[in-house]
């Protein structure tokens, strides 16, 4: 049987988005394929709301830019400017209906510049690599701003997201009813792995050579052979997960205890 292969690669995306596109449409469409259950995404001390570039972008950048290199040391790439960050949010998040990004508001602190937030912007976190056919997603791009590290913020961010993803839609506090949530971390990022394990994630193993690294974070990777990405290092990822049976077998209670503090 004869066959042909007429694949034509798509044109490359422009290196820089025009400023008019960085902030998305007006009104802003988060374009997420799943319902946003606001009560599920809130604890007594923290609330997650959709990240809206025009609303949260400047405050996000003001918080992370002074410590950019250390904050993103163990990430596979470093977004060096606010424009790069917003381009990532537009292309990789908003235009993908199976990804979303949340802004974390610490309800225990006030922000005089933004009283309408009823809290201070403390970090961001999102859902990525969602596989709706398998009811699975990944909790990623978790960033806690330097001024909020060592507080309740990181644990509450993770806790409300686990509840949101794993609770069934018909629960008293409704969720998406997924079966699996993944957490990936650089093998040397003990803080990230420790946070995940404290919140009930179970270590599954190591994915080898899963990332080609941005040159800005190359020191955290290993040399690779000469290939299509000449000179770019790579890295492994530790993979952890919480699945529906973990959730119903004790992790729900662990998360509830954290959120009630």
Automatic annotation (TrEMBL):
Family matches, as InterPro entries:
Acyl_CoA_acyltransferase, GNAT_dom, Ribosomal_N-acetyltransferase
| GO molecular function terms attached to this record | protein N-terminal-serine acetyltransferase activity; protein-N-terminal-alanine acetyltransferase activity
User: What is this protein's name?
Assistant: Acyl-CoA N-acyltransferase
- Could you list this entry's UniProt keywords, alphabetically sorted: Acyltransferase, Transferase
Q: Record's Pfam families? A: Acetyltransf_3
């Amino acid at each position: 049987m004869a066959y042909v292969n007429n694949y034509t690669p798509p044109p490359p995306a422009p290196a820089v988005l025009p400023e008019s596109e960085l902030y998305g449409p007006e009104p802003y469409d988060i374009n997420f394929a799943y319902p946003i259950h606001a009560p599920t995404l809130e604890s007594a001390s923290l609330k997650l709301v959709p990240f809206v570039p025009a609303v949260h972008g400047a405050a996000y950048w003001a918080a992370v830019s002074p410590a950019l290199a250390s904050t993103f040391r163990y990430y596979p790439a470093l977004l060096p400017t606010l424009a790069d960050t917003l381009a990532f949010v537009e292309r990789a998040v908003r235009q993908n209906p199976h990804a979303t990004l949340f802004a974390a508001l610490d309800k225990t602190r006030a922000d005089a510049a933004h009283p309408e937030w009823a809290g201070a912007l403390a970090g961001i976190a999102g859902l990525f690599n969602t596989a709706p056919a398998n009811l699975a997603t990944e909790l990623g791009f978790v960033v806690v701003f330097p001024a909020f590290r060592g507080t309740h913020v990181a644990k509450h961010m993770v806790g409300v997201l686990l509840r949101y993803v794993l609770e069934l839609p018909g629960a008293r506090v409704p969720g998406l009813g997924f079966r699996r949530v993944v957490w990936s971390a650089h093998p040397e990022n003990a803080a990230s792995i420790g946070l995940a394990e404290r919140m009930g994630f179970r270590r599954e193993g190591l994915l080898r050579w899963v990332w080609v690294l941005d040159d800005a974070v190359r020191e955290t990777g290993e040399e690779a052979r000469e290939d299509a990405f000449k000179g770019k290092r790579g890295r492994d990822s530790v993979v952890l997960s919480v699945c529906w049976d973990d959730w119903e077998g004790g992790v729900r209670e662990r998360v509830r205890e954290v959120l009630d503090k």
